[in-house]
Specification:
The protein contains ten helices and nine strands. With about 250 residues, it is α/β, with parallel strands linked by helices.
Length: about 250
């Protein structure tokens, strides 16, 4: 099964540069699961969310179709990292308590994935998917960030619009569960911020089509605006959707 591979070529940068999700999100996921026995994470990338899921579930089955991404994943005793598409999971029927997707559902064939979720989840199991939208930088960096973002805007794949819309309009497979509000923040030094920009699929595409490195080109603007602070607070709008497969018993 083919997949839209925008990150294998920047797998190392992706693993090093992406923000960490808030612990409260994973605590909440564990609280709504029918048991802590097994979590299936599809589209796990290099394991940004997997590490936190592994702290809360006895076993995590984490898959991604990109072997380059899986190669960057950490070694965790209770996690099976596998190269597999979200739409075809190796887990048996009615085996998982939770199916999680972090910042990846927009790349899937959703009809096929939702059918696989219905097969793999236990009765009463939950599907939780989340994502984060454009970075919100401190006021001092708004102008520099605007130059970078505007330059690469046309280089984003079409699925990026789904993130911008927080997955609005998707046809979900089960009844929804109301999710609390969560905040995604990070206190980063400038090199980490520039590494994050370099991990964008749009930055890679812009470099391939123009021969220019937009992050290197705009780095002086960020350096000039950064000031004396060792770190600055970055924020991202975080959205969460959750659903329960029929059959839940208290």
């Amino acid at each position: 099964m083919t997949f839209p591979d925008h990150f294998s070529a920047v797998a190392t940068q992706y693993a090093a540069a992406r923000p960490e999700y808030p612990p409260a999100l994973f605590d909440w996921i564990a609280s709504i699961a029918p048991s802590p026995a097994l979590c299936w994470e599809a589209g796990c990338g290099s394991g940004q969310a997997t590490r936190d899921l592994a702290l809360r579930f006895d076993r995590v089955h984490a898959g991604d179709p990109s072997a380059a991404q899986i190669a960057q994943a950490p070694k965790i005793g209770n996690v099976d990292f596998v190269v597999e598409p979200a739409e075809r999971c190796a887990l048996p029927d009615a085996s998982a308590d939770v199916a999680c997707v972090a910042q990846a559902l927009h790349w899937f064939n959703r009809d096929a994935y939702f059918a696989e979720v219905a097969r793999v989840l236990k009765p009463g199991g939950v599907l939780v998917t989340w994502g984060y939208q454009d970075i919100i930088v401190p006021d001092a960096l708004i102008a520099a960030n605007g130059v970078l973002q505007e330059t690469i805007r046309a280089c984003w794949p079409s699925q990026r619009a789904d993130i911008d819309a927080a997955y609005a309009g998707y046809e979900w497979p089960f009844e929804p569960i109301a999710a609390p509000a969560f905040e995604l923040t990070a206190d980063w030094p400038l090199p980490r911020l520039l590494g994050y920009f370099a991990s964008y699929s749009a930055s890679k595409r812009h470099r391939e089509t123009t021969g220019r490195d937009i992050v290197a080109d705009t780095a002086p603007l960020f350096e000039q605006a950064w000031g004396d602070a060792s770190t600055r607070r970055m924020r991202w709008p975080l959205f969460v959707h959750a659903f329960r497969k029929p059959g839940f018993k208290e």
